[in-house]
Automatic annotation (TrEMBL):
Chain ranges of the Amidase domain: 237-678
Full protein name: Fatty-acid amide hydrolase 2
Segments traversing the membrane: 180-204
PANTHER family from the UniProt entry: FATTY-ACID AMIDE HYDROLASE, FATTY-ACID AMIDE HYDROLASE 2
Family statement: Belongs to the amidase family.
Organism of derivation: Ascaris suum (Pig roundworm)
Length: 698
């Protein structure tokens, strides 16, 4: 028998300001059950009912054929002749690529239960592993958003009344009373914290970094390198301009850990001398451009990437006199490309916190508002580049350490595909799956610099893999988006951050005449579980144990007592992280389940995005927090750490300023090796929204 299918489409049409219901009478297709094909290609009887239908009139829904869409919707679900074959059958969903269809999903995953009832009712409630795959078959349905679908599976036997409708949905199961209470308490807690922080900020003087009008500071590294090669400016002029700017702004933002000014001046003179010694039109000049694309351009580096002769403290007082013996691979490649190291920038202890503060150099402040954090762990880089104290910087990212500071400071930050940029010379060193999570990448003010820096940092085989020199046609792009995380441990998405996401979505819909698809993937909301489970590598000490140079476990109680007495050489954030990481969060069985879910989500996102798909995701749940606020909202970093756990490339793009004159932005996620596409998207968003906003415009 075949039962009616009913669908309530609250999720898809939610942001369009209307609701609709869809009802299909499938009784007329009983005679198609014995077809050889497992998929029913059409329905002979269908009815469509919708409330307030005229309100569904947005650009992305125009021209769509409702009836055809309903037919295609039905063909996404299996209509099988023989229920006995359900358990082992693999059925491929229909690929719907027409962006004007109302159900623009790639595949549909239907769980085939042993009782012959098909459903996708929250697969998160049961462990997922090899045994699960052997027991049941699936069609991918994770990309339907907020649908509640009821259907009956064709069966030769009677189906119990309780099983006459199986739920097909991609949203999490109905919230329990306890979970609802947790969300209510969470909302109250975060409301109180935000009120207190805003109240305290009233009594602290707000400072904004002074504007700059120096044209040398307001050009990209790509343009500066070209002007140096053409001898329109000299390297020493550019270096002196940035040194002067650092001396002007560092008192307010405290971004510099150690300067390299003397050596930078010497290298600048050498670069100018090289250019003076060769003819512009000669073969030697052509080779120089290819070999040294950054000749004479300054850069800065985060204080966890070793630069020969300079201190690499990682924010630890125990390493305040430790100097690097040799350059990290990325530093060496930058220098070989002609770039000149200008300074090392400030970080939190062990680079494992999202506010940059330590007991050696102090705390980094945001150039837009010095009462607020610059983020972490690359806060020094983010603040200095935003304040025009550097044009490009090298940073690292294991939980959002490139993207959070980039968002907070209104600049671009890029976390490339794993394996593209070498990690040698990074402190602390990582092992196991953490090598997939940790990435070294650029922070910069101008999107055009992302490609140039990535080419310099990546090896030749990686450049060939990424095909960075190939052009990108954004007119064939597919756009997906999510409206944040649903977990009581993370703040709800603020109005400003939601508006920024909406701006980006509507830009692509308008410019490229497409329909962006809203997703609500249940596993995404397990971001914190994925991150902490991924950070647990058997036999490897957590990175925070570098507090003791890995000689012993951190005595958290003793360090906390010393901190209260003002005797500790560690920050409260580092001690708190040590307390957290010293605990075993998951049983082995639970961890295996989480890792299996993580890997499944990675595969599904990879299949969904493929070569020309992007996922737009909020950069952070709120605007830039005030100093010390991260201690009270520690898990907000889940918005960025999720993508480290999934080992996917991400670019953080600024979208201008909010009404409070604070940066807003969006993360753009791609499939592995889609770096070229992400850079093209970053440039497109920069062209649309202006990218980094210079101080003169604030």
């Amino acid at each position: 028998m075949v039962a009616p299918l009913r669908m309530r489409t609250r999720g898809l049409l939610e942001r369009r300001g209307s609701s609709a219901s869809l009802k299909l009478d499938l009784a007329a297709i009983n005679n198609t059950v014995n077809r050889s094909s497992p998929l029913c290609e059409s329905t002979s009887s269908e009815t469509f009912h919708t409330g307030k239908h005229k309100r569904i009139s947005r650009q992305q829904l125009r021209h769509m054929n409702i009836c055809n869409s309903i037919t295609n919707l039905f063909s996404e679900f299996a209509v099988l002749a023989n229920p006995a074959d359900l358990c082992r059958a693999k059925i491929n969903g229909c690929a719907l690529k027409n962006r004007h269809q109302i159900w623009p999903i790639r595949d549909t995953r239907v769980r085939i239960w042993d009782n012959n009832v098909a459903s996708t009712a929250s697969i998160e409630d049961t462990p997922i592993g090899p045994a699960d795959d052997e027991a049941r078959s699936y069609i991918n349905a994770n990309y339907i958003t907020h649908f509640v679908v009821a259907c009956l599976i064709i069966s030769n036997t009677d189906i119990p009344p309780s099983m006459t409708h199986g739920n097909i949905r991609s949203s999490p199961p109905e919230m329990s009373k306890l979970r609802a209470l947790l969300f209510l308490l969470s909302m109250l807690y975060f409301t109180i914290i935000n009120f207190i922080c805003r109240l305290v900020s009233v009594f602290i003087k707000k400072r904004v970094v002074p504007k700059t009008e120096d044209r040398l500071l307001l050009m990209s590294a790509t343009k500066a390198a070209k002007m140096i090669r053409e001898r329109k400016i000299t390297s020493i002029e550019l270096i002196e301009a940035y040194i002067n700017r650092i001396e002007q702004v560092n008192g307010a933002i405290n971004a510099i850990a150690e300067d390299n000014f003397a050596d930078a001046r010497q290298k600048a003179h050498e670069a100018d001398a090289i250019l003076e010694s060769i003819e512009r039109e000669g073969e030697e000049y052509t080779k120089l451009i290819a070999a040294k694309p950054l000749l004479g351009v300054p850069f800065t580096v985060k204080d966890c990437i070793e630069a020969a002769g300079l201190r690499c403290t990682v924010g630890l007082a125990s390493r305040k006199d430790v100097k690097a013996v040799e350059d990290a691979t990325v530093i060496r490649r930058m220098k070989n490309a002609g770039a000149i190291l200008l300074a090392v920038t400030n970080v939190p202890e062990v680079c494992m916190w999202w506010e940059s503060s330590n007991t050696i150099y102090g705390r980094v402040s945001n150039p837009y508002d010095t009462r607020r954090t610059a983020g972490g762990s690359s806060g020094g880089e983010g603040a200095l580049i935003s304040a025009c104290g550097s044009v490009i910087g090298l940073a690292s990212d294991i939980g959002g350490s490139i993207r959070m500071p980039s968002f907070f400071n209104g600049v671009f930050g890029f976390k490339p595909t794993p394996g593209v940029v070498p990690l040698s010379g990074h402190q602390p060193q990582v092992e196991g799956y953490m090598t997939e999570m940790l990435r070294i990448g650029p922070i910069c003010r101008y999107a055009e610099d992302l490609e140039l820096i990535l080419k310099v940092l990546a090896a030749d085989d990686s450049i060939n893999l990424l095909q960075l020199d190939r052009s990108v046609n954004l007119h064939s792009i597919r756009v997906f988006y999510m409206s944040g995380l649903k977990t009581p441990f993370v703040e709800a998405l603020s109005t400003e951050c939601h508006s920024a996401l909406k701006m980006a979505v509507e830009h692509f819909e308008r410019k490229y005449d497409l329909c962006a698809i809203r997703l609500d993937l249940p596993f995404v909301h397990k971001a914190l579980d994925f991150y902490f489970a991924s950070m647990e590598v058997p036999g490897v000490a957590p990175p925070i144990h570098a507090m003791t140079e890995l000689d012993s476990d951190v005595d958290c109680a003793f360090e906390l007592a010393k901190f209260v007495l003002g005797l500790s050489s560690h920050t409260l954030a580092a001690i708190t992280m040590a307390v957290f990481e010293n605990r075993t969060l998951f049983s082995e069985e639970r961890k295996r389940t989480i890792i299996a879910q993580r890997d499944r989500l990675h595969r599904e996102l990879n299949e969904l995005l493929q070569a020309n798909g992007i996922l737009l995701f909020p950069s952070f749940p709120t605007l830039v927090p005030f100093h010390n606020q991260p201690l009270l909202t520690p898990f907000n970093f889940a918005y960025t750490s999720l993508w480290n756990a999934l080992a996917l490339p991400v670019v953080q793009c600024p979208l201008g300023l909010s009404r409070h004159s604070l940066p807003i932005g969006v993360q753009v996620i791609g499939a592995p090796a889609s770096d070229r596409l992400l850079i093209a998207v970053a440039r497109d968003l920069e062209q649309a929204f202006g990218g980094w906003k210079p101080l003169i415009d604030r």
